[in-house]
Amino acid sequence: MQNYLSISYDILSSNEVRTCDDSTNFKYRLTPFFSSEVLSLPIHSYEILIDEGNRKVFKLNFSSHNTFFNFEPGLTLGVLPNNDENEVDQLLMRLGVESVADNYFKLGILSNTKRKNACIPKHIPECCSLRKVFLQHVDIRSVPKKLFLKSLIPYVEDAGERNELELLCSPKGSEQYNELISSYSKRSLLGLLNRFTTCNPPVEKLLEYLPPLLPRPYSISSSPLIKEYFTITFNVDTFSNNEKSLCSSWLEKAFMSLRKQFL
């Protein structure tokens, strides 16, 4: 499958500063949580409800000051997380783009592309850095579709790995594919590239396929009579290989960082 995106990097001098306005692309990450404006809310207070082995339950109270929105029990709040910074660092190194990860890039459409209606993915900012895109804009842990796996085959050097990837894309490989997507670490982009060590796709090929990083739903669990804050309660489960879900672990890190400030 031929690429249709091109990428070029802007090397700025040390005294140049560039701002990145990604507000236009931001709306493509909000589905289906678009009933209100995007809010940046401080944490009012917090509490650990359960801390037992591989299971933790947290209660976070967000300040409702200046929200101008009626929060009631049962309503769903969409939390827009970032990807794990360490995972993104490893991914940038694996792709061999760490030297340009903080440079601004420009995406374009190849003039010789044969793809019909080729366009730049709307959730990726036109002016941005690879680090920010992989941290905030694309989902690097989403379940990989077979079409995406198939697109990686031309970039695999080892014949054995190529055969394994072809099997995953085929009807005969359904059992292996289901086993792959059942694990966060195996199905993640980094997990795939670490599994297929001779697979070296260009970063623009990945940007053609990676979906937007979407909000995760959490139910509001506090009374509307409380005007100072509203509450979400969430659990963080540690699965095999120390795996955790993306957003809950991101909230946990925010929780623990805040906790250290008061210890």
What is the gist of this entry?
With about 260 residues, the protein is an alpha+beta fold.
* Poorly predicted spans: 13-17
- Share of helix among residues? 25-40%
User: Helix count, per DSSP?
Assistant: 10
The proportion of residues in beta strands is: 15-25%
CATH superfamily placement: Translation factors
Q: Any idea what the shape is?
A: globular
CATH topology: Elongation Factor Tu (Ef-tu), domain 3
Provide tags for this entry.
alpha+beta; 10 helices; globular; Elongation Factor Tu (Ef-tu), domain 3; single chain
What does this structure look like?
- Helices cover 31% and strands 19% of the residues.
- With 263 residues, it is α+β, with helices and mostly antiparallel strands.
- The chain has one domain: Translation factors (Elongation Factor Tu (Ef-tu), domain 3, Beta Barrel), CATH 2.40.30.
- Strand 2 and strand 3 form a beta hairpin.
- Helix 2 packs across helix 3 and helix 4 packs antiparallel against helix 5.
- The protein is globular, with a radius of gyration of 21 Å.
- The termini are far apart.
- 21% of the residues are buried.
